[in-house]
Amino acid sequence: MISPYLVPFDQSFDLSSSPTTPPADAPGKKALKKELKDLVDELDELQRVFYADDRFSLLLVFQAMDAAGKDSTIRSVLSGVNPQGCQVYSFKKPSKEELEHDFLWRTAKCLPERGRIGVFNRSYYEETLVVRVHPEYLQGQRIQMPENLDDLWPERYRAIREHERHLANNNTVILKFWLNVSKEEQKNRFLDRLQRPEKNWKFEAGDLTERGYWDDYMHAYQDMLNATSTEVAPWYAIPADDKPFMRKEVARIIVDKLKSLQLQYPKISSEEQAKFTQYEAQLLGEE
Ligand code: ATP
Ligand code: MG
Predict the structure, then answer these.
(1) Is 127 a pocket residue for ligand 1 (Cβ < 6 Å)?
(2) According to the model, what pLDDT value does residue 1 have?
(3) How far is the CA of 66 from the centre of ligand 2 (A)?
(4) Candidates 62, 98, 130, 138: which one to mutate for ligand 1, based on the most atoms within 8 Å of Cβ?
(5) Is 65 within 8 Å of 217 (Cβ atoms)?
(6) 85: domain range?
(7) Is the separation of the CB atoms in 60 and 88 below 8 Å?
């Protein structure tokens, strides 16, 4: 079943009409939590076969404005998965070493191996988002700049599409989630961080500064989502104002994708089977 939140591949995505809240007929909180629990269990089962099958890697990319719930979504959706089969990486401002390389270098080093799930909490997409909103970051990159700065973003989209196509051709399954929180809900969550002592540590003054650039970010997101949602690396624009709904929806998309891969436990050959029978007899014959 195709998710209603899939960003279409024909550049027709309109961010301003993309919902930040669940549909009116969405189940209640309790039912959503139960659904998430069932999906988390299913994901655990699927991940075991995924690991044994050892043909594919799964890359999950998360992008969002601050306080949209990236961290908690990653935590709750992957809560049932064997930690050995899953790697989460967060990408912050690039380090001095990272700036010595092209913009795909630091994430490429963290791509999941076969049989593993890799999660990118922020990603190379920041290079078309925060860097577009604050082009002064480009100075640290010492790249060849086009005459017109506007020509840089389509070039980065092209590089990203080609990178993702290459990964897909080499058995990396890619799913990308944009957690679409409204400006109003972000305000509530920032206020919550200021007002609740156990959440104070999450508040950063810099997040308020970025909020001031909301419209610039939305413009960059709209452009980026249209340019980089492809068959092999689709984006999903998930309503993020309601956390239980968002988590359930993300889990559902991942589970559906894994199911479609027809994963199998490796089958043993008839010679191996014969040996197994021998070993079995040996063990049973022990004193
Ligand atoms: P938290 O939930 O802990 O706040 P976070 O992902 O917001 O998680 P921070 O350390 O607060 O982590 O912020 C990371 C910052 O790094 C973001 O503002 C992001 O835009 C910025 N960043 C990420 N990648 C790049 C990049 N390539 N160039 C410049 N800034 C970047
Ligand atoms: Mg932050």
Answers:
(1) yes
(2) 78
(3) 6
(4) 130
(5) yes
(6) 15-284
(7) no
Structural tokens at position 36: 């998430």
> Which atom number of ligand 1 is nearest to the Cα of residue 134?
29
Measured in Å, residue 50 CA sits from the centre of ligand 2 at 32
> Which ligand gives the minimal distance to the CA of 91?
1
CA of 25 to the centre of ligand 1 (A): 35
Residue 10 in any domain: the answer is no
CA pair distance 205, 182, nearest whole angstrom: 19
* Residues with CB in 5 Å of ion ligand 2: 66
- Looking at residue 233, its pLDDT comes to 98
- pTM greater than 0.85: yes
List Cβ neighbours of 242 (8 Å cut-off, separation of 6 or more): 21, 22, 26
- Residue 274 included in any domain: yes
State how many domains the chain has: 1
133 in a domain, yes or no? yes
Q: Which atom of ligand 1 is nearest to the CA of 124?
A: 27
pLDDT attached to residue 143: 93
* Residue 190 to residue 211: CA distance in whole angstroms: 10
Q: Examine residue 4 and state whether it is found in any structural domain, yes or no.
A: no
The alpha carbon of 64 and the centre of ligand 1 are apart by a number of angstroms equal to 10
Q: What is the mean pLDDT of each run of 10 residues along the chain (287 residues)?
A: 95 98 97 98 97 97 98 96 95 97 97 98 98 96 94 98 98 98 98 96 95 98 98 98 98 98 93 95 93
Residue 67 alpha carbon, nearest atom of ligand 1:
2
- CATH number, domain with residue 50: 3.40.50.300
